[in-house]
Amino acid sequence: MLVTNKAKDFTAAAVLADGQIVEDFNLYENIGEKGAVVFFYPLDFTFVCPSEIIAFSKRADEFRQRGVNVIGVSIDSQFSHFAWRETPVEKGGIGRVKFPLVADITKQIARDFDVLFDESVALRGSFLLDADGTIRHAVINDLPLGRNIDEMIRMVDTMLFTNEHGEVCPAGWNKGDEGMKADKEGVAEYLAKNEDNL
């Protein structure tokens, strides 16, 4: 089980948001002030993946404003990542995305996050880490199923809310909504006011 446990640290080659290739990108050194989203995708130069990566990149500032860094990972090399970033979107590339892409050539990172499929590629795993590296949320999609990046932003908001207020977030909670006290009275009070909206 990964959720509630600390993510296993890793150091690997990566292409940074500024296009620089580094050999020693470290997970724990790159967690934002309030957390990180680590997401896996199968391969560079494929089909569903660019839509997800571009969607993450378009929302990178929204994550950053919340103190959360985004980190992408696949089994491709840092050189493949770099080439894909340098390929324009209209030619099947992803353009110069606003977060690092990690090279998991040995597939060990995918194994550690339990997303390695058939010893070949990573499934579409998305992991929300707290500031201390604790995995608070995880979702894993099969290869053909693209993920919803706005839902990950919502989950970031729920984590930040519960961290700050100590309350829990009921079904469908969005930033600005009322939380729920985690006791019998809190549940009754919340449901009395909000049951029709569930």
Give a brief rundown of this model.
It is built from six helices and nine strands. With 198 residues, the protein is an alpha+beta fold. The strands form two sheets. It has a seven-stranded mixed β-sheet. The protein has a two-stranded antiparallel sheet with strand order 6-7.
- How are helices and strands ordered from N to C? EEEHHEHEHEEEEHH
Largest beta sheet: strand ordering: 2-1-5-4-3-8-9
What is the gyration radius calculated from CA atoms?
Answer: 18 Å
Profile the largest sheet: 7 strands, mixed
Protein name: 26 kDa antigen
Keywords: Cytoplasm, Disulfide bond, Oxidoreductase, Peroxidase, Redox-active center
GO molecular function: thioredoxin peroxidase activity
Subcellular location: Cytoplasm
Structural notes for this entry:
The chain has 198 residues and is an alpha+beta fold. It has two domains: 154 residues, Glutaredoxin; 32 residues, no CATH class. The strands form two sheets. It has a seven-stranded mixed β-sheet with strand order 2-1-5-4-3-8-9. The protein is elongated. The model has no long low-confidence stretch (mean pLDDT 95). Belongs to the peroxiredoxin family. AhpC/Prx1 subfamily. Thiol-specific peroxidase that catalyzes the reduction of hydrogen peroxide and organic hydroperoxides to water and alcohols, respectively. Plays a role in cell protection against oxidative stress by detoxifying peroxides.
SSE arrangement:
Elements: E1 11-15, E2 21-26, E3 35-40, H1 48-58, H2 60-65, E4 68-74, H3 78-86, E5 101-103, H4 108-112, E6 116-117, E7 121-122, E8 124-130, E9 135-141, H5 149-165, H6 184-194
Parallel strand pairs: 3-4, 4-5
Antiparallel strand pairs: 1-2, 1-5, 3-8, 6-7, 8-9
